[in-house]
Amino acid sequence: MRSSKDNLQVLHEDNHIIIVNKRAGDITQGDKTGDTPLSEVVKRYIKDKYNKPNNVYLGVVHRLDRPTSGIIIFAKTSKALERLNKMLREKQINKTYWAIVKNRPQKSQDTLINFLRKNPKNNKSTAYNKESKDTKKAILHYKAIKDLDNYSLLEIDLETGRHHQIRCQLSNIGSPIKGDLKYGFDRSNKDGSIHLHARKIEFIHPVNKETIKITAPTPEDAIWKACD
Questions:
Q1: Residue 163 CB neighbour total at 10 angstroms
Q2: Mean pLDDT of 19-38
């Protein structure tokens, strides 16, 4: 079992929130696998750091897919959780992702608008160009910011937060994310990750109203390091 000091990278912490850099492979919250979720690791970190004798409160504000790395915000108080949830709903938290893809998109930058339908049986979403039953509108903006030997680095700003949205929409334009077998890449990464990273976040602190801007270092990986 991972200990609270085992590579937990804290990017920001105050009385109300804690922001960490999730490793690819970590689950945000408990699921049917029974693996220790990141939320429990953060709780133990807080408990150890502040010698708290009782249970630690920690609210999960949002999630990242298991094979994805990068920024996750947790709330340390119920007041912060309630306000952050409202900010998410009202699109007041700006998230920027980096994705390493094969097949550089035809346009160097573009806005992708699709309608996604999630299939719970295979935990996969499909992108459609027109709205139909059980679809949800998905909007993202991307720009190509670096060409690598065999790949391209895209920077992505999300307007909506749908199931597997970035993975599905990029695959739909023929640019699947490196390592993402589920969405059309030809082979998996050895560690089970995909090259999708929640790189930056910007929002107004839910309590003290200061502007928070965080950039998460990319994973220790030769291809990621070529992007920095």
A1: 17
A2: 87
Cα-based torsion angle of the residue sequence 163, 189, 144, 137 in order, rounded to the nearest 10 degrees: -10
Residue pLDDT, tens place only, 130-160: 999 999 999 999 999 999 989 999 999 999 9
Which is catalytic among the residues 6, 14, 31, 65? 65
186 is catalytic: no
Which tens digits make up the pLDDT trace of 188-225?
999 999 999 999 999 999 999 999 999 999 999 999 99
Q: Are 191 and 24 in contact (CB under 8 A)?
A: yes
Long-range contacts of 170-173 (CB under 8 A, 24+ apart): 170/99, 170/101, 170/105, 170/112, 170/142, 171/127, 172/112, 172/114, 172/127, 173/105, 173/106, 173/112
Task: Give the integer Cα–Cα distance in Å for 194 and 144.
Answer: 18
